[in-house]
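Quick one - inputs below.
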Amino acid sequence: MDIDKQIVAEIEARLGAKNIRTGADAEGFLEDFWGRARGKTLCVALPASTQEVSDVLSICFHHKIAVFPQGGNTSTCLGAVPDASGRSIVLSLSRMNRILSVDPLDASIAAEAGCILADIQEAAVKVDKFFPLSLGAEGSCQIGGNVSTNAGGTSVLRYGNTRDLVLGMEVVLPDGRIWDGMRTLRKNNTGYDLKHLFIGAEGSLGIITKVSLKIFPSLPHLTSALISFEDIVNLTAFTEPLRKTFDTSIIAMELISGSEVRIVKEMMPDLSVPYDQNVGWFLLVDIVSDGQGDIADRLQDVLGGAMEDGHITDVLISANEAQRAAIWKLRHSVTESHKKYGMGMSHDVAVPIGDIPRFIQIAKAKVDEAFPQADIAIVGHVGDGNLHYNVIFEKSRWAAIPDQSKMRKDVYKVIYDIAAGMNGTFSAEHGIGALHVAEMKTYKSEIELEMMKGVKSLFDPHNIMNPGRILPE
Ligand SMILES: Cc1cc2nc3c(=O)[nH]c(=O)nc-3n(C[C@H](O)[C@H](O)[C@H](O)COP(=O)(O)OP(=O)(O)OC[C@H]3O[C@@H](n4cnc5c(N)ncnc54)[C@H](O)[C@@H]3O)c2cc1C
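Output:
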């Protein structure tokens, strides 16, 4: 039997024929969410337990066969699909999707890594608690994928990134050994805190099979405000008073450019947009009641001055949950609209918070000059300095570009150079995947790469875990 067939046969013997996919049955696991890359694989393995993950990794380690872990496959940077070699397996966590325990007293929740994020949020609500990680893909991304990418999302301002929410985890190492680190301790200074190596490692060091997470008191009433303003230079003039007044009661602070709203409206004409779209910018703020008076009244007080000074042009404050949902619907419609509109190069940059207006101004001048056929559409978790700076080519304009690959690289370089020049980063929350490996070489220092390569070779000496991702050769 040829070696590839033997590997598939060994995996099949451990998991059972119905829990592996080959040929046409594997198709659904090979293409990335955005349709930008399609890989090949010997088979997709669908283990249902930690022991089965361990068995599969032992086989792959023995045969030195690459393993591409896959969660919900919503990665924005080609992180979760196999490469084109075909000499690899995809390991999908989708069958390991159980909530294991919810402990309100310990304020913790334990789940298998393939658990869908929305199911974890729901499990917390059932015990009158709150799990704050929230992002547009929450209906399909998995907690193992969130932890592996150290996902950010819309609640970072108050609760931090996924890293801040993880208490413990279980991991299967590339050679099949199992590390049980499923604790829920808030304090444990006993040597290196190993879980942090796996958070944000994008499956390059092992497979996360279980996680324990913090949950929080359930949120009282939330109020959303959509603030319109014309000029980005005025951003801090009204966000600083907002921060001063509401402090940690601000859950989300999302920037949306007027150009973005107009693309959403064009691509999704049925979406209700009950405000003037012909404005330069919108800021969406979510504030939780803090017992210090009516949020809407206090918002009017704080923003009244900004309105008089001409820093903002309008404020829409949600009066009920339906209005709040309508405001957020706009924010969550961005990804789908981009897909319909054309080819978007999304830059997940972060710069120091005070530099955001300057970044936007410099980037606009450069993009307008170098890529006049492109639209600029921006959304961002601006409260924590993170912008999704999208340079989008409408479909027919993209089709007319002779060397699209060069164009992509040129656009990325312009934006990332500006961020780097401000002591910022080219990947704030989405990670590296296969898409940004070249940027690692350009923007990370030699010593950073050396340390990362040292960690990688310690855990994964045969380089079988997600090869070609994160680290340049
Ligand atoms: C509409 C939309 C909105 C989004 N919004 C945000 C946002 O606001 N903030 C944000 O940070 N991201 C966002 N993302 C990106 C994406 O949803 C996140 O990166 C998410 O955390 C990935 O989870 P996943 O289960 O889909 O992982 P996948 O895409 O399947 O995998 C991501 C990476 O993790 C690895 N991996 C997956 N599971 C495991 C595991 N159990 N063990 C080891 N490695 C594993 C994969 O190999 C891959 O490298 C968005 C994506 C979409 C499509």
